[in-house]
Amino acid sequence: MNDMSVLERAVSQQDIKISARKVQVYYGDKHALKDVDVDILDKTVTAFIGPSGCGKSTFLRCINRMNDTIPAARVEGEIRLDGEDVYDRRVDPVQLRAKVGMVFQKPNPFPKSIYDNVAYGPRIHGLARNRAELDEIVEKSLRGAALWNEVKDRLGEPGTGLSGGQQQRLCIARAVATSPEVLLMDEPCSALDPIATAQVEELIDELRSRFSVVIVTHSMQQAARVSQKTAFFHLGNLVEYGETDDIFTKPQDSRTEAYISGRIG
Amino acid sequence: MNDMSVLERAVSQQDIKISARKVQVYYGDKHALKDVDVDILDKTVTAFIGPSGCGKSTFLRCINRMNDTIPAARVEGEIRLDGEDVYDRRVDPVQLRAKVGMVFQKPNPFPKSIYDNVAYGPRIHGLARNRAELDEIVEKSLRGAALWNEVKDRLGEPGTGLSGGQQQRLCIARAVATSPEVLLMDEPCSALDPIATAQVEELIDELRSRFSVVIVTHSMQQAARVSQKTAFFHLGNLVEYGETDDIFTKPQDSRTEAYISGRIG
Amino acid sequence: MTDLPMPQNPAAAQPAQKSSLLSQDDRTRRRNAAEKRFRSYGAAAIGLALAALVVLMITIISAGSGAFRQTYLSIPVALNAEQLDPEGNRDPAEMSKVLTLRYGSVLDSALAAAVENTGIQIEGLSDREIKGLISREAAAQVRNRVLADPELVGQTIELDVLVNGRVDGYFKGRVTMASAARDANTSPEQLMLADALAERGMLVTRFNWNFVTNPDASDQRPEAAGVGVAILGSLYMMLVVLFLAVPIGVAASIYLEEFAPKNRWTDIIEVNISNLAAVPSIVFGILGLAAFINFAGLPQSAPIVGGLVLTLMTLPTIIISTRAALKAVPPSIRDAALGVGASRMQSVFHHVLPLAMPGILTGTIIGLAQALGETAPLLLIGMVAFVREFPGAPPEGLFDPASALPVQVYNWTQRADPAFIERASGAIIVLLVFLLCMNLLAIWLRRRFERRW
Amino acid sequence: MPLSWALIASFMLAIAGYFVGRQRIYASAGPDIRLLHSRPVYHGASVALTTLILPLAVLAIASFMRMGGVIGASAGPVAGLVALGAAVLGLGWGVSRVGQGFQARNAVEKIVLGILILCSVIAIATTAAIVLSLLFETGHFLQLYDWKTFFFGTEWTPRFQGNSQLGVLPLLWGTLYVSLIALLVAVPIGLFAAIYMSEYASKRVRGIAKPAIEVLAGIPTIVYGLFALITVGPMLRDYFAQPMGLGNSASSVLTAGLVMGIMLIPFVSSLSDDIINAVPQSLRDGALGLGSTPSETIRQVVLPAALPGIVGAVLLAASRAIGETMIVVLGAGAAARMSLNPFEAMTTITVKIVSQLTGDNDFSSPETLVAFALGLTLFVITLGLNIVALYIVRKYREQYE
Amino acid sequence: AQAREQIQISGSSTVLPYATIVAEAFGENTDYRTPVIESGGTGAGLQKFCEGVGTNTIDIANASRQIREGELAACQGNGVTEIMEVRIGYDGIVFASSANGPDFAFTPADWFNALSAKVVVDGAVADNSATNWSQVNPDLPDQEILAFVPGTKHGTREVFEEKVILAGCEESGALEVFTAELGEDAAHEACMTLRTDGRAVDIDGDYTETLARIDSSPNGIGVFGLAFYENNTDKLSVGTISGVTPSTETIASGEYPVSRPLFIYVKKAHFEQVDGLKEFVEFFVSDDLAGPDGPLAEYGLVSDPELADIQAAVADETVMQ
Ligand SMILES: Nc1ncnc2c1ncn2[C@@H]1O[C@H](COP(=O)(O)OP(=O)(O)OP(=O)(O)O)[C@@H](O)[C@H]1O
Ligand SMILES: Nc1ncnc2c1ncn2[C@@H]1O[C@H](COP(=O)(O)OP(=O)(O)OP(=O)(O)O)[C@@H](O)[C@H]1O
Ligand SMILES: [Mg+2]
Ligand SMILES: [Mg+2]
Fold first, then answer.
1. CA spacing 20 to 30 A to C269: which of B92, C109, C112, E276?
2. Nearest Cα residue to B96 out of E142, C175, C343
3. Which chains touch A (3 or more CB pairs under 8 A)?
4. What DSSP character marks residue C398?
5. Which residues sit opposite B36 in a β-bridge?
6. Checking DSSP bridges between strand C203-207 and strand C156-162, what pairing results, if any?
7. Measured between beta carbons, which residues in chain A are less than 8 angstroms from residue B259?
8. CB-closest option in B92, B126, B127 to D106
9. Are residues C381 and E10 in contact, defined by beta-carbon separation less than 8 angstroms?
């Protein structure tokens, strides 16, 4: 299976999954994102890096229109998923979000059992024909999020009683369970220990064979490890975007260089 | 002043600030923390590391009795602060928490303005005689948490409108503003970019000259960078505790070694 | 899906599994339909509620707006000295022996003279019908004026007197010629006379402040009845309720939600409070009679007792909504406050309470609204009463007899003269205005406190 | 009025005490007041509170003894003096406590906690008083009337001449039937309205709709009653009951239930709206992010999280329904009857409590005293319902964060 | 105890309108304050009255019936011993239907046969199955039977049962049949048990409610007080009983059978303590007010033919034995 995905990756590398043009986001008067142009490729992991508050989460939330829920937020410009404008009036944000899954920066498990947390997406999207299939999806997703062993005996307990890191992995499992085409992950590993992080990174690598993954991370190392493309944001601007290796080894912009070498924040 | 603090550190290194003996924590039936014995020194940074769900946050919350707020949690054993049992009936948990400040794993700013978030502690403890002094404390704390530049023009805006990392730094600033004797930080840098992380680490190092700092972190590098002592938790046990250098270079316990080398999680 | 044979042209393989965003698949369409339905249920629910409100409002206002207008007749009245001051010494003490009945006859002759002077000729108009044109209140009106200024006796003064309720109703459309034909208390001739007087400008219908300021009047004088005493009584009671129920309710909720240990006792208290909400309001009246009047010796018919009873009655509403609001504040806020060394009391009063404020205010609004419109408990403590004297200023006034707005409504709807039905609707309008004033403040406050986290 | 003078004097002393307390702590604190356990405000407040508490207690006890007839009116001035003395004592004690080592905040908080407890005790005391005032007369009733007929009788026909049938069952049935219909109207409408206001409506619409709906709770019930009597009742009869052959009564359970339901909408909608609004946005984001529609989010995530509060709101509405009189009298009639047909006239326990208490019956006859027994029975029944509700909430309660 | 300035009155809502008229005039024409008059029913009024003596108890109880033995005993038990019973006049009870419908001329027997649960059919006791007035009495209009009778809380109900239904029972001869079949006590009870199939509708509210019900069910016939009817002659048409049209005159003369006396009960012990109490009672029964031409009669109270005796009794402060 792995061989195949490698092969696949090679051929589909150049498909553009998401393309953003001149995206502007305002929170009330605050201009939080300025003129962002970016093409995110299919079956690729793209990392967003940049100092805190630069607009990474904001841009992520634009892609699956989660910004719709913030009354003050206003988005301009164009974001296309498979060539279709996601802000088109005919687009149903629900269908969009089913295709573009998301893991949030703050873990937000539902006040339900662990099982129901993970089964929520498959249930609403009708991904399982019966209970057995659902069980399978839940187990697979929890395993993928490196949580299965810790919770397999307490699937019926509330997800809110887990430790911070466990909650975050639960949210990852929940997002994976719906099999989206694109997975947006906002600092998925920030609350995780190195081993869990490694497992999640492995999962991301595996997911890449099927979806496009966008990950926000503060860890340069992680970006280097998991991503093929990296975008660097600074003060609401997308400063530089390119092959991960290039960004980390030969950044074009002085700000990127400064950030990578630890000089600006 | 730096010279002085170095001097001071040398002499007071051995003062025990917090000593825990046979601490057990149960969440209902779940035995989350088993027989933890540890001495935390004054004017020292102690790092707690360990896989997710091993009980680091739980132990941290024991120290300033934040566990009192979880009805299901039950603490046994003895924790002494400056030789006084914090679970003594005569101890006022409020006074205890004023001395032992805390930054939580999930950022939880008050739904108030940024200024009021930071000023809250100083206000209730009467740390400022007048508005000017309060302004000064707020500014100093925000600077310490590397947030001042980002928010100095919007101190009146709600703290909940900040980005994840900004919220986390706001919480750090809030905790620092009350000048506690011990500062407990539960993964304070997990949502921060490297530069902000570096600034917070700098702050921690600075704080060390005045308080004792306990920090939970998943980053081995960070533990190595900021802490003098490290404790490794695993499945509710305190497996190993010692000088940070020793833990990372010559761990005594096989589990510690496995964790550090990335084999168990 | 990964088992598929490797496609040569990936683009060709994609459409099979990829759906366009612009076209919805079946399931999405169904879910969106469900979403639309759900949303329209919500809109329909609001629509229904608002429609009910509008219908009720229209009913009330169309029935009650008449109470705010009143017809007056202005006639010259010769104050005959022989009748009004038989002793002739203009001594008010002596003159007060003359009853209103005597003044009635003075008015009767004044009226007859006035009608004659205008030269109006109406077929079959009897003396009784001319006399019946004006309210019985008029005599009292004249008497008061004369006693206040005895020198008026012997003079002829121009007087604005209330007309009879039926005639007044005629000018407001309540009484018609057809109904008057059947009505024992008026007649088409009387109405024709009124029409003729109105043409000459002697009869005018104008805004009726007296409705808001007058006290109640007896069954024979609907045109003179007002809600003055009732407004004061309701105001006093609401003050008592506001100053007792809200602080006590909020304090009790804070204790139960934030401080009380969660054990069987608090369960009992919780059940007990929601059970108190189900106790019929009249039972609170029984309690009020037993505890405040018979045991504590507070006076009958006093707003203080009414206020206390209503306080007990509204407490559960306030406590239940406040507790729900406190419960909804996320624990992380409390943690945050405790973490910087605030005491539990401080965390509650500084953070939790302000965040729970919208819910508390909602409970207060609903509780007060309910208290303001309640009659049943007042039945037993003597506030469902005919009270003509205004209570004094608080705090002593709280102990004076008074009625209340809902009581006035209740009383008036029971009276025989149909003119009182209009008054009752008018009183309801006053009550709603009262309620609105009370709510506006709370709603404004609630808006300021509302936020999502 | 010696008592109110004593009260005012105590208040003045307390205010003075506040400043004295603050003064003393500043004086004794030395250069750095930050070292104090409590802020000076708390020291001031603790003095003020200790000054107030004793005289208030004295006055409370005195007026209680006065009511109970233990002391006469002439004891007023004495009580006033004692209270004043107590205030001075409290002041002295309070001031003497002020000092570096004194934990004023804890002392103040203890007193505040005491006040909070006292307030919650009022709720209990009310219940006790209600039960007591009902119990006594119920005892009288049961001496005069056979309890078996009362509890199990299916006929309710009080007579002036005595020998009445006073069976509670038809009244109970009417109560449950009317309340059920009212809730069937109020809960769906109220809940959907709450959902729409908190999740869909713009801020402006919500800002108008919510208070507007709340007005429904403030309209005097007699207006609803007349509405039921004049408009709804005949309408139901002419367009539903008669065509369907279900009777031709203008007053019916359905009429009262419908109209009462309208009145109860704000109880459900406004309280639920607050609760739903308080569910953290992050939960909604979580569900929306998985591609659920807003309605799925609401049904599956938001509502379960808000459940305890919503149940509270529904219970409150149910309580009002059970306790309502005017609408039932005018809408459902006064006939005690057990029937399934919602187009028939029936009546409720509450209505009969009111009418037996305010009627022309002999006040010492079972026909009047039965009102107290009815009240007590209703009390016990609703108590049972509430216990069940609490149990259900406990079972399904879901805690977030 | 201290004196009270304002008279406090409680009791029957039937007496209330008359009491308010008197109180208003009393307040207007004297220097005393206008009395406060609660309405809460005869029972509740008498209960408050019998609560005890003293300024925080009421002074006068309005009653639409005479005080009962048990109530008197309770009064005396609480120290309320010197009670003055003052009959203020009579209240006529009339039967009226919508003004737009046909006129009715009833006899008590018609009422009995229309509303009683059991009637006599062919000499045997049977369930009442009459649906139209014309079935009861061919002279009556062919209109559905629907009667709004006072609920069991109202004193009017008692009068209605005794003076109309029971009288009709006797008049129609049903009482004899019932007595033969059921025994005397049960026969009375059987006479006065109204049918429960929705044709006799109890009204727990007041006359306005009855009027509103006739508005919404134009077939209905309601039971009203005379005063109420006289204020609403445009909407109601009154039925005659045995050929007599109700009016203050026919009732005072005893021709019209359905009426009852109204009372006020006064605590003599309060004459000292409450300003103007005695004056008020005297004012109440004075010719100016309670006389046949006074405002009370004008409003619908049937003036007491023995008013002079009552005035004398009040002047003498005669108390009940
Ligand atoms: N409120 C609670 N109720 C029940 N179990 C809990 C609760 N909080 C934590 N636990 C459990 O206790 C164990 C220790 O949790 P803790 O939060 O201390 O872990 P942690 O070391 O901080 O992990 P992380 O790094 O993921 O934050 C976990 O297994 C967790 O599931
Ligand atoms: N709801 C909001 N209202 C107003 N301003 C907001 C809101 N959310 C974010 N912002 C502001 O927009 C800017 C970008 O925020 P964003 O959350 O995208 O940052 P980020 O790059 O994700 O940072 P971090 O790494 O700290 O999460 C920040 O300055 C932040 O303060
Ligand atoms: Mg972010
Ligand atoms: Mg943790």
1. B92
2. C343
3. B, C, D
4. G
5. B23
6. unpaired
7. 194-195
8. B92
9. no
Q: What domains does chain B contain, in order, with CATH numbers?
A: 15-260 (3.40.50.300)
Judged against a pLDDT cut of 80, whether residue A10 lies above it is answered with: no
* Protein residue closest via CA to atom 12 of ligand 2: A32
Mean pLDDT of B85-92: 86
- Tell me whether residue E211 is exposed, middle or buried, using C-beta atoms within 10 angstroms of its C-beta: 0 to 12, 13 to 18, 19 or more: buried
Query: What pLDDT score was predicted for residue D73?
Result: 64
For ligand 2, whether the C-beta of A106 sits within 6 Å is no
With contact defined as beta carbons under 8 Å apart, do C415 and C222 qualify? yes
Q: With 0-12 CB in 10 A as exposed, 13-18 as middle and 19+ as buried, what is E84?
A: buried
Residue B8 has pLDDT above 70, yes or no: no
pLDDT digits (tens, 9 = 90+) for D77-109: 787 888 888 888 888 888 888 777 778 888 888
Tokens 């509890």 correspond to D151
Whether pLDDT at C13 is above 50: no
Would you say the ipTM is above 0.90?
no
**Model pLDDT for residues E51-63, shown as the tens digit of each residue:** 888 888 899 999 9
For an interface test with E, the pick among D164, D360, D361, D368 (most E C-beta atoms closer than 10 Å) comes out as D360
Residue among A8, A11, A95 minimizing CB distance to C24: A95
Q: How far is CA B113 from CA B119, B120, B155, B156, C326, in A?
A: 10, 10, 6, 5, 21
Using an 8 Å CB-CB cutoff, list chain A residues near C28. 92, 94-95, 98
- pTM recorded for the entire structure: 0.88
List the residue whose alpha carbon is closest to atom 3 of ligand 2: B161
User: Shortest CB distance from E40 goes to which of C183, C219, C380?
Assistant: C380
C218 contacts on E by Cβ (under 8 Å): 17, 20-21, 23-25
Cα–Cα dist D280/C405, whole Å: 42
Q: What is the pLDDT of residues B190-226, one digit of tens each?
A: 878 887 888 888 888 888 888 899 999 888 888 888 9
Two tokens, residue B250: 């010559």
pLDDT for the residue E120: 87
pLDDT per residue over A107-137, tens digit each? 889 888 899 999 999 988 888 889 999 999 9
User: What is the DSSP secondary-structure string of D230-256?
Assistant: IIIHHHHIIIIIHHHTS---SS-HHHH
Across the interface, do C344 and B94 touch by the CB < 8 Å criterion? yes
B49 interaction partners in chain A (CB closer than 8 Å): 193
Share of chain C above pLDDT 70, in %: 95
Tell me the pLDDT of chain C averaged across its residues: 85
Residues of chain C with CATH 1.10.3720.10: 228-449
Quick one: which ligand is closest to A165's CA? 1
pLDDT, one tens digit per residue, over E196-244 is: 888 888 888 889 889 988 988 888 999 999 999 988 988 899 999 988 9
**A contact residues 50-89, partner B, Cβ 8 Å cutoff:** 50-53, 57-58
Provide mean pLDDT across the span D362-389.
89
Distance CA D171, CA E216 (A): 25
Under 8 Å between Cβ of E266 and E59: yes
The amino acid at residue E90 is: Y
B95 touches chain C (CB under 8 A): yes
Ligand nearest to the CA of A193: 1
Whether there are 3 or more C-beta pairs closer than 8 Å between A and E is: no
Contacts of E194 (CB under 8 A, 6+ apart): E115, E116, E117, E149, E165, E200
Residue E90's pLDDT band (cuts 50, 70, 90): very high
- Give the fold, CATH level 3, of C228-449: MetI-like fold (1.10.3720)
Class of domain D157-400: mainly alpha
Q: What is the domain partition of chain D in residue ranges?
A: 3-133, 157-400
Residue burial D142-173, b: 16+ Cβ < 10 Å; e: rest: beebeeeebeebeebbbbbeeebebbbbbbbb
